[in-house]
Amino acid sequence: MTDNEGSTAAPGVFRFELLGTDGKARTGVIHTPRGQIRTPAFMPVGTAGTVKAMLPESVRATGADIILGNTYHLMLRPGAELIDRLGGLHRFMNWPRPILTDSGGYQVMSLAELRKLSEEGVTFKSHIDGSRHTLTPERSMEIQRLLGSDIVMAFDECTPWPADEATAAESMRLSMRWARRSREAFGDRPGHALFGIQQGSVYRDLRAESAERLREIGFDGYAIGGLAVGEGQERMFSVLDYAPDMLPADRPRYLMGVGKPEDIVGAVARGVDMMDCVLPTRSGRTGQVFTRRGVLNMRNARHREDPRPIDEHCACPACRHYSRAYLHHVHRAGEIIAAMLLTWHNLHYFQELMAAMREAIANGRFADWQRAFEAERAAGDIEPL
Fold first, then answer.
1. Which terminus of the chain is more exposed, N or C, with fewer CB under 10 A?
2. Is residue 381 part of a domain?
């Protein structure tokens, strides 16, 4: 079975089609009215209505089927109501394909010093101008409706790390009550999907309780939240060894905020279908690039006179048309083109990684592919001139 972009769904229908499995790894297609999302899928992050340093058509050219928008940032600036009046986020940012928006729950955690948490929701001060705002499950659903999100995330509290079991339990149960309110506020919106978010930190019993409550409520897809928040890869993988299996097999499984290539591959091996992270775009702006041989820092002097591309096997514009020497120069000089080219390369690499996994799973050779992936990264970069 090959990577499938041609299967169709009835107009207005959101559904997940599982095309193949290999061990726990899965490949499939999420059908939406705005296009198909091939899984495993990596979602570039467009926090404020833009994937930084990239044009929308350039993001699509890397192979991305879907991007992520940020409820918290867009509600503060320019405002969800304004975006709605201007035709919704897709038209506003010129991205006609699917968009997933987070609920604001991660910012609830990260704004600990600026927020007040209650059963009703969260009151917080804007990091931009200090103005006060309230975010509840109902308001989060309203904002995401105004934005026109194809995949809406239930409002939750992302449990911080570290958290003892009692704290994690209290946080998870609050998130489950908010999940039910999110489901009720979301209502019936054909063609749009609502995902619930499993919480419970690193505690298996809490993860099981959270999954059971989410299944009782019923969602179109399920996310695994509260990971990639500082617990480290070993703990994250230990949770992923069981957490995806607790979620319905016939719905997409989304691991939030991950991550590094080796984290992504490990997550897919454990049954995850969707991921997002700012890493490829943020790293591109700081001179770090991801390759099949590991991570390179283009600031390093060893690239100064190197006429070779970042990766001779990569087909992105940075590798097709520019040398390491040039990319080193423009990054050190602070030129905008450096962020553009290095970000494009990173997003291209991440999408090629997803395509390779989809093909390996479909052909029943994912374990062999994973071993080759790990061996190539362990070998390191090509030898200096």
1. C
2. no
